[in-house]
Write a sequence for this structure.
């Protein structure tokens, strides 16, 4: 019996996306279409493809694959994760309100703040783990509610379906940034969200060699509105980036399985280490997010943070000893990245804001990669032994 596409698993759908669909040459792997414009079939006859900002086969292949994996009607591919988020803001008019998590991605926080200063909309940042604060914010009639879980860098989780239903009860749209987990570990549309966005720069592409973004809409009408704005404002991604990203996306599930298994082992190693005072990873039964992760995720993912015991010099020595781990921001690639949020990803925050957010000088974040876990632990142990 032939397989119906919808009956196939996520990993199989990712692996086979767009494979064997080439009509002219029967290429197994879809070719790259580097064209800015297309011939019209004849006078007054517009074909399905007319101009590269509006349509491109590589972008469409990536968009439909991501929409399929997220369980949405359609998707738009953008030049970056930030372009994806800004695209969604076009659904909000001046004077309408956006509610966002107080600990959202720094770039999202900056964009919301400065768009609000321009008078594009109003914004309110809320601690979404605080039920009373969230309920109070909902009474102010938001047009759009943003969700981001797990948070960066402390891996705090929020209850996606509870926030989505509270937002829907006041007729707000709900957008979830699913960059940290990917559809391989959480499906926000199935949990009640209307829109999912990705920085495809991270797990979706997975090889730290493309910057890109995506917006996936649950229903086609909303998706058409977003595609209209993407074309209108010129936010769409390049054909080459889309081609590369689909290539990376094929192995998303296999990568996530290995990286998450490594993260589980690493979290246990760190949790038992005398030079570590605290580990933040929803895969540890002692983590405050453990139960919620089991409810809404199909695994804890491969991002974790920990606090090193010692002063700033100890932190400096620790970073100086690492050789396998790359000292870099970003995440989700096959290689392990390690970063110091206070001086890297979150350096734009004031000392006071950092303290409120719980980001200490001893906090270290790891994007756990696919290197053999024993090699990873050897690298860390060498650094721990010097402090
Ligand atoms: C990186 C990131 C973004 C921004 O994406 P870019 O591709 O860098 O523009 C947005 N949200 C989260 C959670 C991210 O990690």
């Amino acid at each position: 019996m032939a397989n119906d596409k919808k009956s196939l698993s996520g990993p199989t759908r990712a692996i086979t996306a767009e494979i064997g669909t080439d009509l002219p040459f029967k290429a197994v792997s879809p070719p790259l279409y580097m064209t800015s414009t297309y011939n019209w079939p004849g006078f007054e006859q517009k074909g399905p493809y007319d101009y590269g900002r509006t349509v491109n086969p590589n972008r469409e292949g990536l968009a439909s694959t991501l929409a399929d994996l997220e369980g949405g009607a359609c998707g738009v591919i953008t030049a970056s994760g930030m372009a994806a988020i800004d695209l969604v803001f076009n659904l909000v008019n001046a004077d309408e309100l956006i509610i966002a998590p107080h600990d959202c991605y720094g770039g999202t926080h900056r964009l919301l703040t400065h768009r609000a200063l321009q008078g594009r909309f109003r914004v309110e940042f809320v601690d979404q783990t605080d039920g009373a604060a969230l309920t109070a914010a909902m009474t102010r009639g938001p047009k759009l509610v943003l969700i981001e879980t797990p948070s960066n860098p402390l891996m705090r989780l929020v209850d996606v379906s509870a926030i989505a239903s509270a937002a829907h009860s006041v007729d707000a749209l709900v957008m979830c940034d699913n960059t940290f987990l990917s559809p391989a570990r959480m499906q926000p549309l199935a949990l009640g969200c209307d829109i999912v966005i990705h920085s495809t720069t991270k797990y979706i592409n997975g090889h730290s060699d493309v910057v890109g973004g995506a917006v996936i809409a649950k229903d086609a009408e909303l998706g058409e509105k977003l595609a209209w704005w993407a074309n209108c404002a010129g936010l769409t991604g390049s054909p080459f980036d889309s081609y590369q990203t689909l290539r990376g996306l094929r192995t998303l599930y296999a990568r996530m399985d290995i990286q998450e298994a490594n993260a589980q082992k690493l979290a246990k190693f760190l949790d038992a280490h005398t030079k570590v005072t605290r580990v933040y990873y929803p895969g540890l039964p002692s983590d405050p997010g453990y139960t919620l992760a089991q409810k809404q995720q199909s695994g804890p993912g491969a991002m974790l943070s920990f606090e090193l015991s010692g002063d700033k010099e100890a932190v400096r020595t620790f970073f100086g000893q690492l050789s396998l781990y790359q000292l870099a921001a970003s995440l989700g690639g096959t290689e392990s990245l390690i970063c110091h949020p206070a001086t890297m990803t979150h350096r734009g925050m004031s000392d006071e804001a950092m303290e409120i957010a719980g980001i200490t000088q001893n906090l270290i974040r790891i994007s756990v990669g696919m290197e053999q876990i024993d090699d990873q632990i050897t690298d860390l142990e060498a650094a721990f032994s010097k402090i």
Observations:
- The CA atoms of residues 207 and 333 lie 5 Å apart.
